[in-house]
Structures are given as C-alpha cells and as structure tokens.
C-alpha cells in the first residue's frame, strides 16, 4: 500500500511536467503564428503602399502626357491660326497679279466695248488691230502696254493696275511723249462687269 502511495506523487509530477511542456509548446506555437500574422500584415500593408505609390506615379505620368497632348494641340491650333492670314495674303497677291499681256488686252477690250461706259464711244473698232499692242513691262499688279499706230508713226501707252480683287485702274497716255508725266485720263473699273465706276480727267 505504501508503495503505491509513493508512485502516485511521481505520476502527478510527470503529468504536471508534461502539461507544462505542452502549454509551453502551445505558447511558442501561438507566438510564432502571431509573429507570422504580423509579418504577413506588414507585408500586405507594404504591398498596398507600393501599389498605391505606383498607381499615383502612373496617374502622374498619364496627367503629364495629357498636358503635353493638350499643349501640342494648342500649338497646332496656334500654327494653323498663324498660317491662315499668310495663306489669305498669298491668295490676294495671286489675284492682283497680271498673268500675261493677253489678259490685260482682253480686259481693255471688254471695258471699251461695254456700251454703258462713256469711253466706248472713243474707239473706232474697224480700225482696231490687236497686233498693235506690245508689252513694255509687267510688275505683278501693274502692267504697261504700248499701242503702235497703223502708220507706224507714234503711238500711246496704257497702264493697268489691279487695286483690289474687285477693282482695276486703267490710265491712258495719248501720245508717246505723254508717258509717264502727263496721263490723259484714268478709269476705275469694276472687274465683275467691266463697268467704269469713276473717270478722272487729267486735263
């Protein structure tokens, strides 16, 4: 009986030691899990911050690209606006240019054949020969022609100046000696219908 009473305390001590060991193992395991959980949480937080930073960086790049795109569009629009006046100016210069002597001769004939113009009474068309015209000079918007008399002696000058795309001035010099100081008269003509808008007599 005493033998068994001696064994019981030993069993209890062994059992308590085993329980304490199990408890210590469970605490260690719990600490490891907690530490792992904290590391995982820290890693997740760090990953979220990196993702957020990367997202902000990408957003900043997109915003910068958008600003550059808007600037490029603005520059293109500005260049187009600057180019427009230049294009219009070039077109006007082309409209004010005499392409040839034949263009000026045809214009003169239509003005003097328009019976609404007083100057239509000045020409005897039966004595008119287009071959008597010759080119003296052409300065773009102004062209000067010489008319030779049929007899070959003497002649006259006619100067054509495109004032605007809608109006042309004709200055007549009766006699070779009258050019360029003594014009006989000038006509302001409407290009669309060859109508004389204004006559200025130099005498």
Automatic annotation (TrEMBL):
Segments of skewed composition (Low complexity): 38-48
Compositionally biased residues, Polar residues: 76-95
Disordered, as annotated region: 24-95
Superkingdom of origin organism: Bacteria
Segments of skewed composition (Basic and acidic residues): 24-37, 49-75
Protein name listed in UniProt: DUF4767 domain-containing protein
């Amino acid at each position: 009986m005493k033998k068994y009473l001696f064994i019981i305390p030993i069993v209890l001590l062994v059992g308590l030691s085993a329980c304490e060991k199990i408890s210590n193992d469970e605490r260690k395991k719990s600490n490891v899990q907690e530490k792992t959980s904290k590391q995982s949480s820290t890693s997740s937080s760090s990953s979220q911050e990196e993702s957020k930073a990367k997202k902000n960086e990408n957003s900043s790049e997109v915003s910068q690209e958008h600003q550059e795109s808007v600037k490029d569009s603005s520059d293109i629009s500005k260049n187009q606006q600057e180019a427009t006046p230049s294009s219009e100016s070039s077109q006007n210069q082309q409209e004010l240019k005499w392409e040839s002597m034949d263009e000026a001769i045809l214009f003169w004939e239509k003005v003097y054949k328009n019976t609404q113009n007083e100057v239509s009474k000045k020409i005897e068309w039966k004595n008119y020969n287009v071959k008597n015209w010759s080119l003296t000079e052409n300065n773009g918007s102004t062209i000067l022609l010489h008319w030779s008399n049929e007899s070959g002696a003497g002649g006259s000058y006619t100067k054509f100046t495109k004032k605007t795309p809608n109006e042309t001035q004709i200055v007549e010099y009766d006699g070779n000696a009258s050019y360029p100081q003594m014009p006989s008269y000038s006509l302001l003509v409407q290009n669309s219908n060859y109508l004389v808008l204004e006559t200025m007599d130099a005498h």
